[in-house]
Amino acid sequence: MSIYGDLSKNPGVLRVLFSQLMARFPFGMLSIILLLHIQLAYGDYTSAGLVLATQSVGQAISGPLSSRFMGRWGMRPVLSATSILCALLLAVIALTQLPLIFVAVLAFGVGIATPPVTPAVRTMYPKLVPGNQLSALFSLDAAAQELIWVLGPVVAVFVSSQFGTTVGLLVAAGIMVFGGAWFIMSPTLGTLTLPPSRRRFGAVLRYPTVVISTVIGFFFVASFAAIETGVVAAFRGPTGEDQGSMESGIVLALFAGGSLVGGLLIGHRDMRPWSLALRMTIVLAGTLACLVSLNIWWLGTVLFLGGIGTAPAFAAISNIVSASVRFSETAEAFGWVGTGQLVGVAIGSALGGISIDAAGPHGAIMVSAAMLMCGTICALATMRWIPDLKGRIIEPQADTGTLTIPLP
User: Fold this and answer.
1) Burial call 138-153: b when 16+ CB within 10 Å, e when fewer
2) Cα 353–Cα 24–Cα 329 angle in degrees, nearest 5
């Protein structure tokens, strides 16, 4: 724990860590809330899947573009505009009764307006701490990220079941505005100068590590979105009523707990080329074990054990990118990685919803396992391009911006 204690001694680190966590938290809620909101409004999960798919298309377009715009116009203007627009579109979806096609268009707008918080903060990290502490910071970030991807759906299910999906969407929009403002007003964000990339848009994809991280991140996060829909469906009544929101919340909270434990105990360790595949295999084993039984304690136990590999795998992906990309291109690189993960959330939820209609909760679990298997195979097949970081100080390649951290 002393490793993580040393991180807090760096000025501004804790505020950035917690404020960006709050700003990103709604995106752990949105897929489940939209899934439930549209399913209740239109009577089937397939309609919800279509809306989530249009959102994912918008995110695919937005991620790297908005990240690149931060180098041209500055981080604060881009983050402010996208946060406000995205929250307004969510409020419109929540408060209006529109034909499905118009809801899909609004969801596409939500995707386009997704604030690029993830690439912004991961561009900042190498400038906030010494290189020998960066792996620990990425690990702590990945562990905290589980509050987004795993506890986010717990909050979404609880709020939606107790107060309705309309309130759930409005709560997500409110958190987005509050968290975004907290992060945007961080002094360290205002002092970071991100030099514009000298190469054309998309050139960062020439780095094999960026493509690998984007593809693996897509499969990895899609698997979580699918299994979350499966867990929610496993404890809902036959007509979709919220009979088991507490049970699904317990299971997903245990999943998050396993990831937090894994992130703190494993994520900061030196990464070898095979580390990512090994960590994903742990998660795959826990997911496959879910097919044995839908009993609440069985699911909670196997997902807790499988979750031990989750945060360390996310930390490995961040380390791979940060160690192999120039500083001026890190925002766009993390934009592509973030796009892969955000699209994974939407696609995983969509496929999970469709599979529930076809085969029940087990269908969503099988989708999750298939996604994890694809990601693990990719990690194994691309080991020769994954850097060996044992004993190395992780920092962006030469081409640096400046960061002046004000004294407390």
Assistant:
1) bbbbbbbbbbbbbbbb
2) 105
Q: What is the CA radius of gyration of the chain?
A: 20
Instruction: Return the structure tokens found at 106.
Output: 């609004």
Reference 81, options 62, 55, 107, 94; nearest CA is 62
Q: How do residues 233-281 score in pLDDT, each as one tens digit?
A: 887 655 445 445 677 778 888 888 888 888 778 766 777 888 889 999 9
Q: What does the DSSP 8-state code read for residue 404?
A: -
> ∠ CA 195-198-202 to the nearest 5 degrees?
105
Give the separation between CA 54 and CA 272, rounded to whole angstroms: 37
Question: Whole-structure pTM over 0.85, yes or no?
Answer: no
DSSP codes joined into one string, 308-322: TTHHHHHHHHHHHHH
The answer, yes or no, to whether residue 406 has pLDDT greater than 70, is no
Contact 405, 192 (CB under 8 A): no
Q: Compute the CA torsion angle 221, 223, 228, 229 (nearest 10 deg).
A: 120
Residues found in the chain: 408
Residue type, 353: G
Between CA 202 and CA 198 the distance in angstroms is 12
Q: Which pLDDT does position 239 carry in this prediction?
A: 46
Name the one residue in this structure whose structure tokens are 């929009």.
173
Query: Amino acid identity, residue 314?
Result: F
- Four-residue CA torsion sign, 64, 69, 74, 75: negative
Are the C-beta atoms of residues 123 and 137 closer than 8 Å to each other?
no
Place of tokens 């609880």: 158
Q: How far apart are CA 321 and CA 315, in angstroms?
A: 10
Q: Cα(390)–Cα(386) distance, rounded to whole angstroms?
A: 12
Distance (Å, whole) CA 146 – CA 140 = 10
What whole-number distance in Å separates Cα of residue 295 and Cα of residue 66? 43
